[in-house]
Amino acid sequence: MxxxxxxxxxxxxxSAVVGLMACKKHHTSPDNTLPSPTVYVLGSSGDTTExxxxxxxxxxxxxxxxxxxxxxxxxxxxxxxVAGQVVTGVASNNLELAxxExxxxxxxVALPDSTGLATANAIYVNGAxxxVAGxxxYFASSTAVYSTPTAVYPKQGWVANYWQNGVPVxxxxxxxxxxxxxxxxxxxxxxxxxIFVAGGSVYVAxxxxxxYSGVPSSYQFAQYWDQGVATNLVGNLVDSSGGNVTASxxxxxxxxxxxxxxVAGTVGGSFPSQAVVxxxxxxSILGNGTANSIFVSGxxxxVAGxxxxxxxxxxxxxxxxxxxxxxxxxxxLARSIFVSGxxIYVAGTDIVNGVVYATxxxxxxxxHLxxxxxxxxxxxVQ
Length: 382
Description:
Elements: H1 11-15, E1 39-45, E2 48-53, E3 56-59, E4 67-76, E5 79-90, E6 96-104, E7 107-110, E8 118-126, E9 129-138, E10 155-164, E11 167-170, E12 176-177, E13 186-198, E14 201-208, E15 223-226, E16 229-232, E17 239-241, E18 244-257, E19 260-268, E20 274-279, E21 282-297, E22 300-309, E23 312-319, E24 322-325, E25 333-340, E26 343-352, E27 355-362, E28 365-371, E29 375-381
Parallel strand pairs: 10-13
Antiparallel strand pairs: 1-2, 1-29, 2-3, 4-5, 5-6, 6-7, 8-9, 9-10, 10-11, 12-13, 13-14, 14-15, 15-16, 17-18, 18-19, 19-20, 20-21, 21-22, 22-23, 23-24, 25-26, 26-27, 27-28
């Protein structure tokens, strides 16, 4: 990104620049206008997956056999990176055959996995390094012989993972022995929701959906990993009845600023849901609704999501806990937020006269990109 120097001149000063320019009596002011920002938005319209660059769509394709879905985007220099999953078929056990993949300028890069079922949910580019966070699914039948409940058995379920330049790194997670005393597998049900790289450390937001009924120490629904070391964010955000969990938090995004770790999420499972932000593990409730994305600029914390107003979810964002409603149409959603200078950009889904649009808002003003059911899921501004 180039710097721009604003300056003032006079006829006296200009006259010293011999042979380069002349002072005119009725000259115009120099053009000090900064270039317009480039706005990238990832989303879909109908069955088409695409990203828009300043409103111009580029359609994404799998680049090979199979169908695909996308969930995250980032931009580095002029390169556009998109993360997602390619489904190539169905195995004999009726499970999907799929792999995690990211696309650089539309060209796919398949990420290696050991299970034949993986997905990518978040992406971050730091210089020449590409980090992708996602899951590996372990669903093969177990042939292990049971010996003791504390033995290490084959994995079963979804295990959190990230790839650094294509090399997978498994993240430690919550595991529960499957079944009673004859258990022969360790069951996982993890998820990842965001990735951020800062100060040489890799931060991944996510959590687990496995727990022991009535055992609070096993509640790991919301957490983040810093270099593979997990921090549990659950705190006192779990409601339970008769030992069964009725409401719990889930993470949706992560941002690191200096030594501070910010995580966005939603306390769901009961009505109404609540938008929440953690700063260094301490939770703050923003209000009734959902929080889907977080961005930090200086001392200001920006969160995109939906506010619950009169029993309707309406696309909104918060700045330091203060809400701004973007759309008063019910069932609208803000999925991603980006701040550039004093401008706030939010991507999501808007509904106008019953038509659903992939949309981004700049300082609250909507730009409707394409009609369709998918909407926009990510935004990046250069």
